[in-house]
Design a protein that fits this description.
This protein has 158 residues and is an all-alpha fold. It is built from 5 helices and no strands. The protein has a single domain, classed as Four Helix Bundle (Hemerythrin (Met), subunit A). The protein starts with a helix and ends with a helix.
Length: 158
Protein backbone atom coordinates (compact mmCIF):
# COMPACT_ATOMS: atom_id res chain seq x y z
CA UNK A 1 0.00 0.00 0.00
CA UNK A 2 1.18 3.49 -0.78
CA UNK A 3 1.54 6.20 1.82
CA UNK A 4 -1.54 7.99 0.46
CA UNK A 5 -3.69 4.87 0.78
CA UNK A 6 -2.49 4.34 4.35
CA UNK A 7 -3.36 7.94 5.26
CA UNK A 8 -6.85 7.47 3.77
CA UNK A 9 -7.34 4.24 5.73
CA UNK A 10 -6.28 5.97 8.95
CA UNK A 11 -8.91 8.66 8.25
CA UNK A 12 -11.55 5.98 7.72
CA UNK A 13 -10.51 4.28 10.94
CA UNK A 14 -10.72 7.54 12.87
CA UNK A 15 -14.22 8.17 11.50
CA UNK A 16 -15.36 4.83 12.91
CA UNK A 17 -13.37 5.07 16.15
CA UNK A 18 -14.12 8.65 17.20
CA UNK A 19 -17.81 8.59 16.29
CA UNK A 20 -17.98 5.18 17.96
CA UNK A 21 -16.42 6.50 21.16
CA UNK A 22 -18.98 9.31 21.24
CA UNK A 23 -21.77 6.77 20.86
CA UNK A 24 -20.31 4.47 23.51
CA UNK A 25 -20.17 7.32 25.99
CA UNK A 26 -23.60 8.59 25.03
CA UNK A 27 -25.43 5.27 25.14
CA UNK A 28 -23.73 4.49 28.47
CA UNK A 29 -24.82 7.82 30.01
CA UNK A 30 -28.40 7.33 28.90
CA UNK A 31 -28.37 3.68 29.90
CA UNK A 32 -27.41 4.51 33.46
CA UNK A 33 -30.23 7.03 33.73
CA UNK A 34 -32.75 4.73 32.04
CA UNK A 35 -31.81 1.81 34.30
CA UNK A 36 -32.48 3.91 37.37
CA UNK A 37 -35.87 5.03 36.10
CA UNK A 38 -36.83 1.55 34.87
CA UNK A 39 -36.08 0.05 38.28
CA UNK A 40 -38.87 2.22 39.70
CA UNK A 41 -41.14 2.39 36.64
CA UNK A 42 -40.60 -0.71 34.44
CA UNK A 43 -43.54 0.25 32.21
CA UNK A 44 -41.45 3.13 30.79
CA UNK A 45 -38.80 0.81 29.35
CA UNK A 46 -39.88 1.25 25.70
CA UNK A 47 -39.96 5.04 25.87
CA UNK A 48 -36.60 5.18 27.62
CA UNK A 49 -35.00 2.73 25.19
CA UNK A 50 -35.66 5.11 22.30
CA UNK A 51 -33.93 7.92 24.19
CA UNK A 52 -30.98 5.67 25.03
CA UNK A 53 -30.52 4.56 21.42
CA UNK A 54 -30.36 8.07 19.93
CA UNK A 55 -26.69 8.84 20.79
CA UNK A 56 -25.73 5.50 19.24
CA UNK A 57 -26.45 6.63 15.71
CA UNK A 58 -23.27 8.67 15.40
CA UNK A 59 -21.23 5.49 15.71
CA UNK A 60 -23.20 4.04 12.81
CA UNK A 61 -22.51 7.17 10.75
CA UNK A 62 -18.77 6.86 11.38
CA UNK A 63 -18.88 3.18 10.45
CA UNK A 64 -20.74 4.02 7.23
CA UNK A 65 -18.13 6.61 6.23
CA UNK A 66 -15.31 4.15 6.91
CA UNK A 67 -16.98 1.50 4.74
CA UNK A 68 -17.60 4.02 1.93
CA UNK A 69 -13.92 4.98 1.93
CA UNK A 70 -12.91 1.32 1.77
CA UNK A 71 -15.31 0.76 -1.14
CA UNK A 72 -14.02 3.85 -2.98
CA UNK A 73 -10.45 2.66 -2.55
CA UNK A 74 -11.26 -0.90 -3.65
CA UNK A 75 -10.09 -2.33 -0.33
CA UNK A 76 -13.08 -4.65 0.06
CA UNK A 77 -12.88 -6.20 -3.39
CA UNK A 78 -9.16 -6.84 -3.67
CA UNK A 79 -8.61 -4.14 -6.31
CA UNK A 80 -7.02 -1.56 -4.05
CA UNK A 81 -6.29 1.85 -5.54
CA UNK A 82 -2.86 3.31 -4.92
CA UNK A 83 -3.26 6.94 -3.79
CA UNK A 84 -0.75 9.74 -3.84
CA UNK A 85 0.03 11.32 -0.49
CA UNK A 86 -2.08 14.36 -1.42
CA UNK A 87 -5.07 12.20 -2.35
CA UNK A 88 -4.65 10.25 0.88
CA UNK A 89 -4.80 13.46 2.89
CA UNK A 90 -7.89 14.50 0.92
CA UNK A 91 -9.66 11.27 1.93
CA UNK A 92 -8.43 11.73 5.49
CA UNK A 93 -9.95 15.22 5.51
CA UNK A 94 -13.20 13.90 4.06
CA UNK A 95 -13.54 11.59 7.07
CA UNK A 96 -12.99 14.31 9.66
CA UNK A 97 -16.44 15.96 9.67
CA UNK A 98 -18.18 12.84 10.94
CA UNK A 99 -15.19 11.72 13.02
CA UNK A 100 -15.05 14.93 15.04
CA UNK A 101 -18.70 15.93 15.02
CA UNK A 102 -19.79 12.33 15.63
CA UNK A 103 -17.71 12.25 18.79
CA UNK A 104 -18.91 15.61 20.07
CA UNK A 105 -22.57 15.44 19.04
CA UNK A 106 -23.12 11.96 20.53
CA UNK A 107 -21.87 13.18 23.89
CA UNK A 108 -24.03 16.28 23.91
CA UNK A 109 -27.03 14.45 22.51
CA UNK A 110 -26.67 12.05 25.44
CA UNK A 111 -26.78 14.97 27.86
CA UNK A 112 -30.07 16.13 26.33
CA UNK A 113 -31.43 12.56 26.17
CA UNK A 114 -30.49 11.95 29.82
CA UNK A 115 -32.47 15.05 30.79
CA UNK A 116 -35.34 13.78 28.64
CA UNK A 117 -35.20 10.46 30.48
CA UNK A 118 -35.59 12.31 33.78
CA UNK A 119 -38.47 14.33 32.31
CA UNK A 120 -40.14 11.11 31.13
CA UNK A 121 -39.79 9.65 34.63
CA UNK A 122 -41.84 12.53 35.99
CA UNK A 123 -44.16 13.00 33.00
CA UNK A 124 -44.33 9.84 30.86
CA UNK A 125 -46.52 11.60 28.28
CA UNK A 126 -43.61 14.00 27.59
CA UNK A 127 -41.28 11.39 26.10
CA UNK A 128 -42.04 12.59 22.56
CA UNK A 129 -40.92 16.09 23.51
CA UNK A 130 -37.71 14.66 24.91
CA UNK A 131 -37.08 12.68 21.73
CA UNK A 132 -37.60 15.83 19.66
CA UNK A 133 -35.15 17.78 21.81
CA UNK A 134 -32.56 15.02 21.49
CA UNK A 135 -32.98 14.69 17.73
CA UNK A 136 -32.22 18.38 17.28
CA UNK A 137 -28.63 17.69 18.34
CA UNK A 138 -28.54 14.76 15.90
CA UNK A 139 -29.17 17.17 13.03
CA UNK A 140 -25.57 18.33 13.13
CA UNK A 141 -24.22 14.78 13.05
CA UNK A 142 -26.38 14.12 9.98
CA UNK A 143 -25.05 17.27 8.29
CA UNK A 144 -21.50 16.11 9.00
CA UNK A 145 -22.30 12.67 7.62
CA UNK A 146 -23.60 14.24 4.41
CA UNK A 147 -20.50 16.43 4.08
CA UNK A 148 -18.20 13.43 4.56
CA UNK A 149 -20.12 11.37 1.99
CA UNK A 150 -20.12 14.20 -0.57
CA UNK A 151 -16.40 14.72 -0.10
CA UNK A 152 -15.63 10.99 -0.40
CA UNK A 153 -17.57 10.62 -3.64
CA UNK A 154 -16.27 13.92 -4.97
CA UNK A 155 -12.61 12.93 -4.71
CA UNK A 156 -10.75 11.33 -7.60
CA UNK A 157 -9.50 7.85 -6.79
CA UNK A 158 -7.17 7.28 -9.71
Amino acid sequence: MTTGTIIAVIGAGLAAILAGIGSILGVQMCGKAAAGVTSEQPELFGKLLVLQILPGTQGLYGFLVAVLVMIQLGLLGGNAVELSTGAGWAFFGACMPIAINGLISAYFQAKVATSAIMMTAKQPESSGKGITMSVLVETYAILSLIVSILLIFGLPVA
